[in-house]
Amino acid sequence: MTAVVAAGAGIGVGWLLWAGPDRGAAGTGPDGAAADAAGACEAWDRVPALSKVFSDDDASEASYDRAGGAAALAHSAAGADPRYEALDKALQDVTRRLQTFDVKGAGAVAAHEKVGTLCAGLDG
């Protein structure tokens, strides 16, 4: 355990030394938020209907992970720029549905489509 903590601290110190004072803000602000939102939507584009996320095929775990990754990126984007709050909230709804296995029916279909619609709006 101590080795893991020491390695993590070493990596963090190394990053700080390499990054320098100007790189600490990289990825923050509107540009970083836009990149995070775009990344969320890119991941979301590869998530099938929610009802298929828990299927028994090999793609199901990747779809679950992509949905979680999209939610994390959308949350990061919304934290930096309030224009992405709707995307964040829509993906939080999807995350709650996945955590409770509420992935079938009209509500799940609507949740999936809402994220797709919000992502389509970012392209324009």
Descriptors:
124 residues, mainly alpha, disordered N terminus
Topology:
Elements: H1 2-19, H2 29-44, H3 59-80, H4 85-99, H5 106-123
Helix pairs in contact: 2-3, 2-5, 3-4, 4-5
Textual characterization of the structure:
With 124 residues, the chain is mostly helical. Helix content is 72%, strand content 0%. It contains five helices and no strands. It has helices spanning 2-19, 29-44, 59-80, 85-99, 106-123. The model is unreliable at 1-26 (pLDDT under 50).
For the largest beta-sheet, the strand count, sense and barrel status come to: none
Uncertain segments are 1-26
Q: By helix and strand content, what is the structural category?
A: mainly alpha
Principal-axes shape call? globular
- Tally of individual helices: 5
Distance between the termini: 48 Å
